[in-house]
Amino acid sequence: MKNNKPHFKLTRAQRNGVLSLSIIIITLQLIFYFVDFSSHEIEKLDTPEILAFQSKIDSLKKIELENRKPKIYPFNPSFITDYKGSKLGMTIQEIDKLLAFRKKGDYINSATQFQKVTGISDSLLKVLKPHFKFPDWITKNKKSNTFKTDTYKGIKTDLNSATIKELKQINGIGDKLSARIIKFRTSIGGFQNQEQVKKVYGLKPEVIEKIFNRFYIKNNNPTGFIKTEIKDLNKATAIELKSINGIGEKLSERIVKFRTKIGGFQFEDQLNEVYGLKPEVIERLFNQFKLLSKPSITKVNVNEATFKEVLHLPYIDYELTKKIFEYRDEFAEIQDIEELKKIEGFPLDKFDRIILYLKAE
Q1: Once rounded to an integer, what is the mean pLDDT over residues 226-252?
Q2: Are residues 163 and 211 in the same domain?
Q3: Domain of 310?
Q4: Strand, coil or helix: what is 263?
Q5: Spatial contact of 333 and 311, defined as CB atoms under 8 Å apart
Q6: Which helix (H) or strand (E) covers residue 197, if one does?
Q7: How confident is the model at residue 228 (pLDDT cuts 50, 70, 90)?
Q8: Residues 6 or more apart in contact with residue 275 via CB below 8 angstroms
Q9: Alpha carbon distance 168, 178 (integer Å)
Q10: Which residue among 85, 150, 243, 296 is buried most deeply as judged by most CB within 10 Å?
Q11: Rg for the chain, CA atoms, rounded
Q12: What is the pLDDT of residue 320?
């Protein structure tokens, strides 16, 4: 016989519990619906604690905004590029004026001179001026100027025979600047006119005026040039090269090191390959140095040389060495050194240099 007893039959206690729970839920719903729990008390926002907290938030925001602003680090205004000038707020015309000024070999030595050359506004100068950084010798000269006198009542002497000690007696000229004047004078074979004196880096117009209150330029050479002893560039020492204005200790050593690497200069334009050597400095260098002797270079037979021997030659890198040997293997032998020009990717502009070290036999 089937059992028809329900599976979810509740006892009296369970039914009472369900009824009580339903009553509680309905009661809570009615309370939430009809009773207003909102507070009518007004929060005070001007308490000392809240004001202090708000002040701290404002200061943190201000610091964050300052950190997001592009920073301007100290820089020498003589070496502003197109990109940097535009970032600083200069116009294209102002930047072009500065570049034209620098192209003449002149340098900026003060904020006033910078504004005079570029024509920037007073407001922009006020922003940029605190970030200008000039060489130490300019700063030292400004400090030492107060201890010198501009008056000179003696007899003028020749600037081309002036010593460092005599030059230092002029207000605005210190140890480094006096040495720079003599170095430049030596590099050009002596001053011929006042325009040449203006090309000495760091000499301000007012200082040049003081120079010619004390010195004059004597020129007994009708041709306009003072004869100097021409030295052999392939035998010059680093110390001798330092006599040229624009060549310091590092650059002179770099020239000698490059000369040793290539076995000696064969062409004057090889100096253009020395890193950091500017065209105007090379021009001054050739006023005192020439290729009076050319070194004898033992050429390597490209048909018998090993890969390593060719790789170590000047002007030849790994890729070019690989191409030369692939060409040699393909044709069994290189009959004429001119065949190198047929190699795909061969640097034709360096051919006259490469054949100084290679031969085909």
Answers
A1: 83
A2: yes
A3: 300-359
A4: coil
A5: no
A6: helix 194-198
A7: low
A8: 254
A9: 6
A10: 85
A11: 41
A12: 92
